[in-house]
Amino acid sequence: MVKVINVKDTIKNNLDHEDGSRLYHAIKSSIKDDKIVLDFSDVEIVTSSFLNTSFRILTAEYGYDFLKEHLQIKNTNSSINRMIKDCVDSVRNAETSPINSPNYLDKS
Question: Residue 5: which residues within 8 A CB-CB, separation 6 or more?
């Protein structure tokens, strides 16, 4: 089943960390059972705070591959696309960084 979440209807127009948390919880409540379509119609800008409390946490919790399969984003502009990509990539890069390896400090 596909569930459409209209971002504009989920947020309070501040696009701050509180709105990011609202979006995070709206996605999380359905993502294991449904595929989610995030509709960014009428949203012109987002903030890094908004993305950090939504996309960054979701990516850290579920992983990039899971989100890629279960989450579709539509009706965004190039600026929002770039910011979402940068946010998600920062989590992906941190996951693959050698410093996060369990043996990073074990140099004996």
Answer: 23, 26, 27, 30, 36, 37, 38, 39
3-class secondary structure, 39 = strand
- How does the average pLDDT of the chain come out, rounded? 88
Q: How many CA atoms lie within 13 A of 45 on its CB side?
A: 7
pTM of the predicted model, to two decimals?
A: 0.83
DSSP assignments along 72-108, one per residue: EEES--HHHHHHHHHHHHHHHHHHH-GGGSTTSS---
Cα angle vertex 37, ends 76, 3, to 5°? Answer: 150
Distance between CA atoms of residues 15 and 103, nearest Å: 39
CA distance 34 to 47: 27
pLDDT higher than threshold 90 for residue 89: yes
Give the Cα separation of 105 and 44 in Å (integer): 44
